[in-house]
Write a structure and sequence with these properties.
Largest sheet: none
Shape: globular
Number of strands: 0
């Protein structure tokens, strides 16, 4: 019989596998198809749908991205990886909340493409941001979410530079994991800074919901930056490969018999 811990671990690994597809395709599109990268996140999912069995892959990504988002929410609210409750710990956990929200949005975009027979409209994130701005204190919410992305970007860059992510990866992982992961994390930090700035502007600087950028939109906005764009694209492809390694070798916290994760064990 498959216990709760094994089900939990399997779902998280499917999440990492889905993330591997997402970032690998994003990096490849950025490096090889300038026209499609201009379509932002829609261009990524359209490219995946054009693959053989592309719709089935999209449905797998819906499940995986949703599972990964729930994993990050669990890290935020239940501290399943023991980041603690001091200032640094809460900064990491709030960053995970931003990541969770971002991956929920990506799961929804994947769902729209998987369930639609034609191209989906590209305003999902902007529509959601508009809805938030229409609420009382909505601008504050978006602005704070932008700050959460800033915090996440800082920790992503630190992970990439120090290699601290390796303490949550099995020693059986390929020897190149440290280098590939470091490159990927730094590229991802750049993208998260762009997303965070777009949310900060929309929330605190009256930039409007049309300023909000998703993952693909953030990369597309760097297209005129020459070598920076190329390096980020290579880095995102590396992050996709790294995520594939995580799908196999990431150490996942065990789930207790009560259905919750009591403690991370490295």
């Amino acid at each position: 019989m498959v216990d709760k811990s094994e089900k939990f671990s399997t779902l998280v690994r499917v999440g990492y596998f889905s993330r591997a597809i997402l970032y690998s395709v994003l990096g490849l599109i950025a490096l090889t198809s300038a026209g499609r990268i201009s379509e932002g996140t829609n261009g990524i999912f359209q490219a995946i749908r054009d693959f053989p069995l592309g719709t089935a892959i999209l449905w797998l990504m819906v499940v995986g991205l949703l599972a990964y988002a729930l994993f990050r929410f669990a890290s935020t609210f239940f501290d399943i990886e023991n980041h603690g409750t001091d200032t640094k710990g809460w900064a990491v956990r709030l960053g995970h909340a931003g990541s969770a929200i971002g991956h929920l949005a990506l799961a929804y975009s994947a769902y729209k493409f998987a369930s639609s027979g034609s191209d989906s409209s590209g305003g999902g994130a902007q529509d959601a941001a508009s809805g938030v701005l229409s609420m009382e204190f909505g601008g504050v919410v978006l602005g704070l979410l932008g700050i959460a992305f800033f915090a996440t970007a800082i920790f992503q860059a630190k992970k990439g530079a120090t290699g601290s992510f390796m303490n949550r990866i099995s020693g059986r992982a390929p020897s190149q994991t440290r280098i590939v992961g470091g490159i990927g994390y730094i590229a991802r930090a750049v993208v998260f800074l762009v997303i965070g700035w777009s949310l900060f502007k929309a929330g605190f600087l009256s930039g409007g919901s049309d300023q909000v950028k998703t993952l693909g939109d953030a990369v597309a906005s760097l297209a005129g930056e020459g070598i920076i764009f190329t390096l980020v694209a290579i880095g995102l492809l590396a992050f996709g490969i790294f995520s594939l390694v995580l799908a196999r070798y990431r150490i996942i916290p065990d789930m207790g018999t009560d259905g919750r994760v009591p403690q991370f064990r490295a």
